[in-house]
Structure to design on (459 residues):
């Protein structure tokens, strides 16, 4: 029986351009993008069949290595300060100019054309009566905005400014064919249990990964996080794990609060966490720290992001579901990983956040970064130098170049840095930061030294 690859081996393979199973990274990127294309037209919202269909497609992408547990929570349920609103099921919404017969907007063309949670309506209106219900972006005349009205009962349509400028005098047939009433809020959960004991002196724990699934036809802000977190699960299912990995796929804000309200027994086991969103599209990676700012996940992700030329930012109580996980009553160690964050790219919450805005290469780049973070969480340790009295003779152990007089290679320097700080208290991640080297280089050096009986404490 062959030995399964480790997270370290998976990291090294991905950095070399392939998965540990031999799939080329470019092929993987195309596969992820195709999954986004299948998910893109589904009418997601806080509730409804679009959410359930999204979970179905995501589970198909797991290839049977894990299941998505579905939770159906009745509307009207209290979740801390929130109440689960009615279920909305959209079939179709459209506006027709009855004078010309032209269809002005139609959700069969683009799901963003209707304001999310619009009440059912079927009526005929004049132009003046219709205008207050129309939403555009004057500064982006060819883009359709994304608008919702979850908790205020109304209806509306979204269209481009050019469509509005060309609107006739009507009258207009207006139809929102939808159901809005008692039902359920649906969220999904995946649990990959730990397969290996934790390092000595540490308690077994979980890594929480969260992605929201309530946005229709928005590729970067929604689908990138969903496809990447499920692909990460697929990859991690094939390797030994010291941590359990729990994935929450829920509607934004209220869905996260709902999950938190139902999992008080799980929360003490959360050691690290990440909210994943906006991981496609142009721009470098951006990590938003936890509220405390000094959690182990902060150090791990900051290291990976900075080594990749990205940016690390302090916590702010505005953004995605990291706000809920970091709330005072929970105080969980959950940061957020994105590329260009929300409201900082022109395509945000518009029809321009389409499949062309996200490339396969951007998806795989973010996936590799995620695996590198997992590598740190899984393989960081506080080793002890077993030959601390001077520099040990590496050459006699076959781990040092046989020809002297040359500058030390990065691999040799990684070993020397590791030996210099392996006091049983300093972590490999701390060594990587001091040495200005990738964690993977220090992790490899530590494994080499351990194999030469110069280091212990790697677990």
């Amino acid at each position: 029986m062959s030995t399964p690859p480790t997270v370290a081996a998976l990291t090294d393979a991905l950095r070399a351009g392939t998965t540990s199973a031999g799939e080329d990274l470019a092929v993987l990127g195309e596969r992820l993008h195709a999954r986004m294309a299948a998910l893109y037209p589904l009418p997601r919202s806080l509730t409804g069949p679009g959410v359930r269909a999204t979970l179905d497609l995501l589970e198909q992408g797991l290839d049977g290595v894990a299941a998505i547990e579905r939770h159906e929570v009745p509307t009207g349920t209290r979740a801390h300060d929130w109440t689960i609103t009615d279920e909305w099921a959209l079939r179709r919404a459209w506006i027709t100019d009855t004078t010309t017969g032209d269809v002005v907007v139609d959700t069969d063309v683009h799901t963003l054309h209707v304001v999310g949670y619009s009440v059912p309506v079927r009526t005929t209106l004049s132009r003046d009566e219709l205008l207050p219900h129309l939403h555009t972006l004057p500064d982006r005349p060819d883009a359709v905005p994304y608008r919702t009205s979850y908790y205020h009962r109304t209806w509306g349509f979204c269209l481009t400014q050019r469509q509005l400028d060309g609107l006739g005098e009507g009258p207009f047939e207006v139809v929102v064919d939808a159901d809005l009433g008692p039902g359920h809020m649906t969220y999904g959960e995946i649990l990959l249990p730990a397969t290996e004991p934790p390092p000595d002196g540490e308690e077994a724990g979980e890594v929480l990964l969260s992605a929201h699934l309530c946005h229709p036809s928005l590729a970067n802000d929604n689908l990138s996080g969903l496809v990447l977190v499920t692909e990460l699960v697929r990859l991690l299912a094939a390797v030994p794990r010291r941590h359990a990995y729990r994935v929450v796929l829920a509607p934004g804000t209220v869905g996260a609060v709902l999950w938190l309200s139902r999992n008080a027994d799980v929360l003490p086991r959360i050691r690290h966490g990440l909210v994943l969103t906006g991981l496609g599209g142009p721009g470098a990676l951006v990590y938003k720290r936890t509220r405390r700012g000094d959690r182990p996940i902060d150090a791990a992700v900051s290291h990976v992001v900075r080594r990749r030329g990205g940016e690390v930012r302090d916590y702010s109580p505005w953004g995605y579901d990291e706000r809920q996980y970091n709330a005072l009553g929970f105080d969980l160690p959950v940061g957020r990983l994105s590329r260009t964050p929300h409201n900082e790219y022109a395509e945000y919450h518009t029809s321009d956040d389409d499949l062309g805005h996200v490339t396969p290469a951007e998806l795989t780049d973010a996936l590799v970064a995620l695996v590198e973070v997992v590598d740190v969480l899984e393989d960081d340790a506080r080793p002890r130098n077993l030959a601390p009295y001077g520099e040990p003779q590496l050459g006699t152990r076959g781990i040092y170049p046989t020809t002297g007089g040359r500058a030390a290679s990065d691999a040799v320097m990684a070993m020397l840095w590791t030996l210099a700080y392996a006091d049983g208290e300093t972590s490999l991640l701390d060594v990587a930061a001091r040495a200005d080297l990738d964690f993977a280089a220090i992790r490899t050096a530590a494994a080499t030294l351990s194999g030469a009986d110069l280091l212990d404490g790697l677990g």
About this structure: The longest strand covers residues 87-97. The two ends are 23 Å apart (CA to CA). The domain at 384-456 is CATH 1.10.10.10 (Arc Repressor Mutant, subunit A).
